[in-house]
Amino acid sequence: MLPIAQNETISASKGAGALRAGAPRFSPREFRASLAMFATGVTIVTARTATGELVGLTANSFNSVSLSPPLVLWSLAQAAGSMGALAAGSHYAINILAADQKPLAERFASRREDRWTDVAFVDGVTGAPLLAGAAASFECFNRSRYQEGDHVIFVGEVESCSYREGASPLLFHGGRFYTEHPL
Ligand SMILES: Cc1cc2nc3c(=O)[nH]c(=O)nc-3n(C[C@H](O)[C@H](O)[C@H](O)COP(=O)(O)O)c2cc1C
């Protein structure tokens, strides 16, 4: 295994024999369609701004990073309306949606202004809103952000988490929502 200094950034474009990726051999459509073959769960990332405003958007770029310390990641489009609030805030929550929460996933991915109208939630210990009925939730300290391409990768340090025993997840694949069918 390669020794990795703590916080070292490993980059192929660093050092004397700098390497670069070749030009893409695919169209943007092919790239999107290929990515869409990766089945994911669905989350809504939520936060409350310093002035008390509620922020939230649907995201399926969530993944685990580290067990100790407990770290997770997700990525946000640079152009997203919630970028300012989420990048500046000290905490956010990642709500893993349950199978019956497709309407919420669609609402928090839409352009409607009133995303939070009639949405049931409680304030978590960090102040971030936790959506009622979610399969699980992670309250994260906004530990670090990495600008990559047209997105920003957020790494969150989990301060609190919980899950609903036996909850079925909402799934996303090929641009469509699914509920589970165990094999
Ligand atoms: C299933 C699904 C997953 C999504 N995942 C992400 C994601 O990981 N990152 C992202 O920036 N946008 C993602 N989006 C798109 C955002 O939810 C959408 O652009 C939203 O309107 C952004 O809100 P904002 O502009 O208020 O920040 C996803 C949408 C859907 C339907």
Distance between the termini: 35 Å
Can you say what the CATH homologous superfamily is?
A: Electron Transport, Fmn-binding Protein, Chain A
Strand arrangement, largest sheet? 3-2-6-9-10-5-4
Q: With helices defined by DSSP (H or I, 4 residues minimum), what is the helix count?
A: 3
What structural class should be given to the helix and strand makeup? mainly beta
Beta percentage is 35-45%
Radius of gyration: 18 Å
By CATH, the topology is Pnp Oxidase, Chain A
Helix percentage range: 10-25%
The first-level CATH class name = Mainly Beta
- Summed up, the domain count is 1
Overall form: globular
Low-confidence parts: none
Attached small molecules: flavin mononucleotide
Major beta sheet, specifics? Answer: 7 strands, antiparallel
Overall pLDDT score: 93
Instruction: Report the CATH architecture.
Output: Roll
> How many strand segments?
12
Helix/strand order: HEEEEEHEHEEEEEE
Task: Tell me what the structure shows.
The protein has helices at 28-35, 83-88, 102-107; strands at residues 40-41, 43-48, 54-59, 63-66, 71-77, 91-96, 121-123, 129-131, 136-148, 151-163, 170-173, 176-179. The chain has one domain: Electron Transport, Fmn-binding Protein, Chain A (Pnp Oxidase, Chain A), CATH 2.30.110. The strands form three sheets. The protein has a seven-stranded antiparallel β-sheet. A three-stranded antiparallel β-sheet has the order 1-11-12, with no helix packed on it. 11% of the residues lie in helices and 39% in strands. It starts with 27 loop residues before the first helix and ends with a strand. The chain is mostly beta strands. Bound molecules: flavin mononucleotide. Residues 42, 57-61, 74-77, 80-82, 105, 109, 172 line the site of flavin mononucleotide (FMN).
